[in-house]
Backbone:
């Protein structure tokens, strides 16, 4: 045991970056890079000006949803209501803005308010009534989508004004080098920046802390219930912003947002963020979202039969998470195979002391 | 059987009792509401409908209960169910001679998927949520690539089972009840069944007691797959054909999880019972049935379902608060007991 | 650290794997070879194809102002025992209300119901929605059968084969069983009401593409879902025509998710020339059109349906469009069929409704008639002569 | 029957034999190696050297179940029970009796009932869920479980720590019962009265080595205490004389404070003073600290801070009253294991005064350097640090919140000697700077070396107050209730 003296000097950034590549949260960037190379191989046009930024732009909603989900997962919870929030907000935007540009601002404000309300409900039910978030958000999903469809007659009446849709559809033309920059890329960059900033702020660290060990945080005089509730609020706001971008990008439809909660959870987990909370980096979750989207694009370009695509995604998920675990467990497996016969002799003498994590 | 009845009695006194209390209230309220509208909740048609809708979900829920007791989840059930339906109907092709082969193929495939889930969760130790999401996606790829729409044809025997009734009770419901009893027996009468509770409740205690946590995981997931397969067969028996979509159409993944939780189980594992889950399904089915009779707008039905889930679990969470024994409790008068901060997690 | 290193290795392996998967994938690039796929589509049925092809252009019996009561000459069903002495109860097992076409039809049906109730022909319509689930629908039909209070059944099956056994049980009650929309895998029903058919739908729009795209051209095909018979039939017919015309095509399953559609079309534009977009559901066309706009490309031939969102985009953007029609007014016909039986009138056994597509010629008229309707409305809703028109459809309140 | 151990790193050359039907007491101060010894016997740890002979056979266990099957059962301090399962299911977990391949619940319940009958317990039904039982009853279930293995030896680790008096009586009867049936009991306890009452022979451990094994009849309580204590450690402590301003207004004063766990707590804590709290496990020391800080608040009595009455009901209020509370279980309530060193240190400031958090960062660095924290840097995850360094970070966390009153619960538990000394120096320095420190410790030398005064607790009450330099014997006697005349009225 050599004593390492505490040093305030952090390692130079490149060293830290390279080191982090060997962590789950860092390796996702390698995977993303590899997939982008493959995508460029199938679609040489990707290197053309504007193409890459368009690709980033159209995937921005998923990345934003992943950011929202990250907050909740980091705090040790789930948010299954994100898809329903997106659908509800899309319908809201379609019905309330209509073709009247004057309505845009008030309706955006209303949407954010609705988003916050959903987050508050999710958060309070989970923290104060102690309903597991999986159930809470499943319940709010049903309630929210049921109500939206009931009130709007099953579908939004039509696309909102073009000025509103420009947020998700338009962009800045003729940018040097890049060519076209969709607004959604700017929104994503702003949000990701804000999220990174927020995670470094006291609130972000408390959020992480609550996911890591709620008791410690509670003894420091903070209110875990309020920290968690804010995570749910952030996630609902993220879903709302994603909804605004999606209405802009492709127009209204009640199916917009369907299944996004699972995509978001998958992206976050692929990004090395632990279910159960307290671990993982927010940008890795964003990278996880882009891994999924790049994969979909590759499958499109490669002409893989459309019906097989979910299977490829499923396989990637299982392998990406399973192989590392399998690698660390290979010893245990050997022991298991060897001791197949005897029941009394249980393997792994250190097991009783190991701390088992529960989701 | 006496131990089973004792077991039943025991669980009725515990949180399962709450579930059935809620169920009774729901049924009474339902009967009143329907009666107020000039309809009979207990009409044979309605009872039969209620039981039929309980059957398929019930089979899935039995498996899901095991998996949740273990502390895992099974999101692949809808796809396993569809898989079983297309395989059985495909192999049978309407021929009596293929009856057994069709059933065997479907159940083997379903159990195999369950086993794979079990390996991923129990041995590789991937989070059950993610693992079964992944296998579900893989199966869906297989299904939608190889089957476009309804396929095959049930053998006459299977169709006969699907339509047969004993009084108002469909034979398939009786089959579900048999599965329920078998799994209940498995849980209370086999070591693996008991160990399942232990692994889900506290993995450390299980290991200290010499239990290998992988075994219950493998068994629970395999049974869950197998029962989803049986559910697929029941669907084929009723529809006469297999379909790659029947599972996803029913939304059996989240609905079954919701039913188990409404039945008093906790998602973290180790607590819950088959009988509670049965109560959970019956609560859902009764409310659905009332709403069906009342012709409630389908979207409002969803709202009601969502409310039930949240309210039920909130009620159970209240009941489950831990009380700390007090050394000087006698001295104090009105001071409220307060759990330590750690107890909330 | 061991885990971490393993992670990196894994990801590298995965990346390689992904590469391998994509490299081995059939087709590799561009479009699916046409001839190979032609034999594959199990949904193609030459007989049905020929029949619907002839019905497309046939002359219909009845008042053209009331297309929902028109039919093709053929065997009729005598009302006979179905004649009711007073207002009768109809039970309706509906597959779902999960898309805008069904919602439009359902609104029309309810307005028609009010009329028939006023006239004292129908007392009540009891409805159960199966929410897109075959199993639920079977239970719903069995519920009606067991309750024994229905004087007639209307069934809009979720999938024809799967609901067949239950439909047969409804038939065995001896009460009239009216099937509409997707059809049942059994012939026991009193009548089957439908517009010409899915194949005709596909033929209409695919022929338009054939006429407007040079042989060898490339069509992007957007399919809502695999295995749903309505969509599969539309596609089977269109595929047949594309194959015959020597057109190349790439097909995608979209789930009608506009975001997905737009990404797909954008990628296709990036890959190279797209000469036409064929959709199997009107909702899919608008995002596809927008993808061309956003890419700064001219909009090629994009087919659609009679939903107003498409018709309006067509009008506004002036591309070569074509709207196949699958009449939403058949929902109304189903109820009228029951009413006619109760009144002792004969109805066609196979009630084929006209299915007249909207071409550039009719576009302005159709748009004028439907002014003020929401984008989700379908022009062929057939409610023009009902008292609630147009407010009820404009407000779009789902009963 | 005999057992021998030779040469452990933590335990060295322990040579111990337990006779059939004997109750063998194992005593020693904290850290003497009792727990390690028990865990080796239980199969939780493996030994490095030496042999364990059971009935003359050399045995080695790599898993608790092996030890149990061989006839050595252990009742640990933390229960290994599933709260949602029945008593019988818990007792037979992993080896449920089967009839024709099926678990026989009837047999299981019958066997459980029989076990309780042999124990003379009739209050527990085999089919009740464990979670509905009291702590004492759960303890009995653990004992029944240990016995169910047909144990030849049962070792018990502080079995009475959580029990009330009448429950202790029951346990004594049970042990007597076991003894009659020829079962040997290895009894670890701090409560000397029980040791003398129950044990036939007593083994004393000190610093991982065996001091003596004597028949109980040859020992007096005073002698035993003398054997246990006497570690030459005083040189490790920094000078005290830095200026406890006793006599000035107390920083903290409790008057008849109490709640569910403690009662009638009254004392004053002055600025510049280190007040030690001693007592056996379960005496209510931790609960007093929790009451003061608001973690588990007092429900009666009066607390004053600097003379002003306060009513602290939550940790947040405690922090606003400038109270720091370093908890006993670092991992469970003190650390954020997956977070970095810096995040842990700043957690407190961020939680209660986020605006000051950026200003706190350089201060944290200063403190780290001053405490000679051994870590790779601010970004290292705290779980990779040693216990001592973790504790330094926890202290830093609290100091950054500028407390006046510092509550320390077992501040040096699981910490190496070097880190301990650094902490002692820090404590002294803090006291000298006018902080008031209340320290709970089970390490008597530490209490004696550091405290200006020592409070002794027993059974939830304050029983004695001793001056700083009191002898270990004096403290132990008060804590264990050996010397009845020492009990304060």
Residues:
């Amino acid at each position: 045991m050599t004593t390492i003296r505490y040093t305030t000097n952090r390692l130079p950034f490149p060293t830290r970056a390279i080191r982090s590549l060997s962590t789950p949260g860092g390796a996702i960037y390698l995977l993303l890079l590899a997939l982008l190379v493959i995508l460029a191989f199938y679609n040489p046009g990707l290197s053309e000006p504007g193409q890459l930024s368009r690709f980033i732009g159209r995937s921005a909603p998923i990345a934003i949803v992943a950011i929202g989900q990250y907050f909740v997962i980091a705090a040790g919870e789930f948010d299954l209501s994100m898809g329903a929030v997106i659908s509800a907000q899309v319908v809201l935007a379609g019905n309330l803005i209509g073709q009247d540009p004057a309505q845009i601002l008030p309706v955006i404000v209303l949407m954010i308010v609705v988003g916050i309300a959903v987050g508050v409900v999710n958060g309070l039910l989970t923290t104060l009534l102690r309903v597991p978030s999986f159930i809470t958000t499943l319940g709010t999903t049903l309630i929210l989508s049921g109500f939206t469809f009931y009130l709007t007659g099953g579908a939004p009446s039509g696309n909102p004004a073009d000025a509103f849709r420009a947020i998700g559809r338009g962009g800045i033309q003729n940018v040097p080098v890049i060519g076209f920059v969709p607004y959604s890329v700017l929104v994503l960059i702003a949000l990701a920046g804000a999220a990174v900033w927020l995670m470094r702020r006291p609130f972000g660290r408390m959020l992480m802390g609550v996911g890591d060990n709620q008791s410690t945080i509670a003894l420091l005089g903070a209110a875990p219930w309020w920290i968690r509730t804010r995570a749910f609020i952030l996630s609902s706001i993220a879903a709302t912003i994603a909804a605004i971008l999606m209405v802009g990008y492709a127009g209204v439809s009640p199916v917009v947002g369907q299944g996004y909660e699972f995509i978001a959870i998958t992206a976050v987990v692929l990004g090395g963020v632990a279910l159960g909370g307290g671990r993982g980096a927010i940008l890795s979750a964003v990278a996880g979202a882009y891994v999924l989207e790049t994969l979909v694009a590759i499958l499109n370009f490669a002409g893989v039969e459309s019906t097989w695509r979910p299977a490829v995604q499923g396989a990637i998920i299982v392998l990406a998470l399973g192989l590392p675990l399998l690698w660390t467990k290979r010893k245990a497996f050997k022991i298991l195979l060897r001791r197949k016969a005897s029941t009394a002799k249980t393997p792994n003498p250190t097991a009783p002391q190991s701390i088992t994590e529960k989701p | 059987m006496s131990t089973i009845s004792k077991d039943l009695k025991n669980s009725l006194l515990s949180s399962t009792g709450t579930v059935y209390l809620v169920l009774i209230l729901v049924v009474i309220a339902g009967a009143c509401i329907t009666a107020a509208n000039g309809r009979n909740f207990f009409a044979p048609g309605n009872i039969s409908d209620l039981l039929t809708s309980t059957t398929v979900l019930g089979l899935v829920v039995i498996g899901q209960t095991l998996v949740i007791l273990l502390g895992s989840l099974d999101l692949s059930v809808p796809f396993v169910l569809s898989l079983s339906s297309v395989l059985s109907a495909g192999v049978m092709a309407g021929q009596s001679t293929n009856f057994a082969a069709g059933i065997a193929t479907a159940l083997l495939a379903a159990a195999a998927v369950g086993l794979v889930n079990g390996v991923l969760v129990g041995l590789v130790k991937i989070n059950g949520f993610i693992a079964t999401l992944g296998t579900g996606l893989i199966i869906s790829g297989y299904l939608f690539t190889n089957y476009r729409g309804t396929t095959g044809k049930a053998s006459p025997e299977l169709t006969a089972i699907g339509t047969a009734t004993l009084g108002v009770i469909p034979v398939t419901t009786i089959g579900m009840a048999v599965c329920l009893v078998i799994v209940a027996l498995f849980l209370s009468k086999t070591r693996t069944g008991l160990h399942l509770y232990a692994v889900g409740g506290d993995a450390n205690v299980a290991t200290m007691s010499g239990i290998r946590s992988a075994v219950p995981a493998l068994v629970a997931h395999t049974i869950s797959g197998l029962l989803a397969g049986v559910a697929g067969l029941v669907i084929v028996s009723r529809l006469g054909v297999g379909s790659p979509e029947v599972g996803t159409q029913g939304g059996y993944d989240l609905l079954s999880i919701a039913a188990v939780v409404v039945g008093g189980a906790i998602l973290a594992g180790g607590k819950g019972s088959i009988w509670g889950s049965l109560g959970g399904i019956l609560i859902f089915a009764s409310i659905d049935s009332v709403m069906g009779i009342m012709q409630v707008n389908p979207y409002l039905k969803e709202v009601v379902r969502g409310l039930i889930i949240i309210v039920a679990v909130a009620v159970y969470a209240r009941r489950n608060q831990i009380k700390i024994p007090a050394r000087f409790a006698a001295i104090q008068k009105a001071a409220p007991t307060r759990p330590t901060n750690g107890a909330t997690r | 650290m061991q885990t971490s290193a393993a992670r990196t290795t894994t990801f590298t392996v995965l990346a390689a794997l992904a590469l391998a998967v994509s490299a081995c994938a059939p087709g590799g690039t561009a479009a699916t070879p046409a001839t190979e796929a032609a034999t594959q589509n199990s949904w193609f049925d030459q007989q049905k194809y020929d029949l619907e092809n002839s019905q497309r252009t046939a002359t219909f019996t009845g008042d053209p102002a009331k297309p929902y009561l028109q039919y093709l000459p053929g065997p009729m069903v005598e009302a006979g025992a179905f004649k009711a002495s007073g207002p009768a109860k109809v039970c309706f097992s509906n597959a779902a209300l999960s898309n805008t076409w069904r919602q439009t039809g359902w609104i029309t049906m309810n307005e028609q119901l009010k009329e028939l109730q006023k006239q004292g022909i129908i007392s009540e319509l009891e409805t159960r929605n199966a929410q897109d689930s075959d199993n639920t629908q079977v239970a719903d039909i069995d519920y009606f059968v067991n309750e024994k209070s229905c004087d007639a059944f209307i069934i809009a099956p979720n999938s024809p084969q799967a609901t067949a056994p239950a439909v047969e049980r409804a038939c065995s009650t001896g009460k009239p069983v009216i099937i509409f929309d997707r059809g049942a895998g059994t012939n026991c029903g009193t009548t089957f009401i439908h517009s010409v058919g899915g194949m005709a739908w596909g033929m209409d729009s695919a022929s338009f593409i054939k006429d407007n795209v040079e042989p060898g051209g490339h069509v992007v095909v957007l399919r809502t879902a695999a295995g749903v018979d309505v969509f599969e039939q539309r596609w089977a017919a269109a595929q047949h025509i594309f194959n015959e015309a020597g057109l190349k095509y790439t097909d995608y399953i979209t789930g009608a998710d506009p975001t997905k559609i737009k990404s797909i079309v954008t990628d296709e534009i990036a890959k190279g020339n797209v000469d036409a977009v064929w959709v199997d559901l009107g909702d899919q066309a608008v995002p596809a059109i927008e993808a061309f706009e956003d890419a700064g490309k001219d909009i090629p031939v994009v087919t659609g349906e009679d939903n107003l969102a498409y018709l309006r985009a067509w009008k506004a953007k002036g591309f070569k469009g074509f709207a196949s029609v699958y009449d939403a007014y058949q929902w109304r016909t189903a109820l009228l069929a029951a009413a006619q039986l109760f009144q002792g009138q004969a109805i066609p056994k196979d009630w084929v409704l006209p299915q007249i597509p909207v071409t550039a010629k009719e576009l302005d008229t159709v748009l004028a008639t439907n002014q003020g309707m929401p984008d989700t409305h379908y022009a062929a809703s057939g409610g023009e002569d009902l008292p609630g028109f147009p407010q009820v459809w404009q407000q779009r309140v789902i009963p | 029957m005999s057992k021998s151990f030779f040469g452990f790193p933590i335990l060295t050359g322990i040579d111990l034999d337990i006779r059939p039907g004997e109750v063998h007491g194992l005593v020693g101060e904290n850290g003497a190696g009792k727990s390690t010894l028990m865990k080796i016997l239980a199969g939780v740890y493996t030994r490095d050297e030496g042999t364990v002979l059971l009935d003359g056979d050399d045995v080695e266990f790599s898993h608790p179940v092996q030890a149990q099957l061989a006839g050595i059962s252990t009742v640990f301090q933390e229960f290994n029970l599933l709260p949602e399962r029945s008593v019988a299911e818990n007792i037979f977990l992993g080896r449920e009796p089967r009839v024709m391949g099926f678990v026989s619940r009837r047999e299981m319940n019958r066997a459980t009932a029989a076990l309780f009958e042999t124990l003379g317990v009739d209050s527990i039904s085999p089919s009740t869920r464990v979670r509905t039982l009291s702590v004492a009853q759960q303890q009995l279930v653990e004992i029944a479980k240990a016995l169910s293995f047909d144990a030849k030896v049962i070792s018990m680790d502080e079995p009475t720590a959580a029990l009330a008096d009448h429950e202790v009586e029951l346990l004594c009867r049970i042990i007597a019962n076991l003894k009659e049936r020829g079962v040997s009991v290895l009894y670890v306890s701090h409560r000397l009265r029980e040791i003398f009452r129950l044990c036939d022979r007593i083994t004393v451990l000190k610093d991982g080595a065996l001091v003596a094994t004597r028949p109980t009849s040859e020992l007096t309580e005073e002698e035993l205490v003398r054997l246990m204590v006497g570690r030459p450690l005083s040189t490790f402590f920094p000078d005290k004389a830095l200026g406890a301003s006793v006599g000035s207004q107390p920083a903290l004063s409790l008057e008849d404070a109490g709640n569910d766990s403690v009662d009638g707590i009254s004392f004053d804590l002055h600025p510049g003073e280190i007040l030690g709290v001693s007592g056996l496990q379960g005496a209510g020391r931790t609960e007093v600290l929790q009451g003061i800080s608001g973690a588990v608040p007092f429900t009666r009595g009066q607390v004053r801070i600097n003379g002003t009455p306060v009513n602290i009901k939550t940790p947040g209020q405690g922090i606003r009253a400038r109270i720091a509370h370093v908890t006993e279980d670092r991992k469970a309530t003190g650390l954020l294991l997956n977070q970095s060193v810096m995040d842990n240190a700043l957690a407190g400031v961020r939680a209660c005064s986020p605006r000051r958090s950026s200003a706190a960062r350089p201060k944290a660095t200063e403190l780290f350097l001053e405490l000679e924290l051994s870590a790779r840097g601010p970004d290292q995850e705290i779980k990779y640090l040693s216990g001592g360094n973790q504790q330094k970070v926890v202290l830093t966390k609290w100091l950054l919140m500028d407390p006046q009153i510092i509550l320390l619960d077992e501040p040096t538990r699981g910490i190496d000697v070097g880190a301990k000394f650094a902490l002692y120096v820090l404590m002294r320095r803090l006291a000298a700077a006018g902080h008031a420190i209340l320290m709970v410790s089970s390490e008597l030398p530490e209490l004696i070396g550091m405290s200006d005064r020592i409070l002794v607790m027993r059974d939830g009450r304050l029983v004695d107050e001793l001056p700083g330099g009191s002898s270990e014997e004096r403290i132990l006697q008060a804590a264990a209730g050996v010397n009845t005349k020492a009990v304060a009225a």
The CA atoms of residues 420 and 434 of chain D lie 21 Å apart. The interface with chain B takes residues 63-65, 80-85, 89, 93-96, 98, 102-103, 105-106, 127, 129, 131, 134-135, 164, 258-263, 284, 295-297, 299-300, 332-333, 459-460 of chain D (CB under 8 Å). The first strand of chain D starts at residue 3 and ends at 4. Chain D has 17 helices and 22 strands.
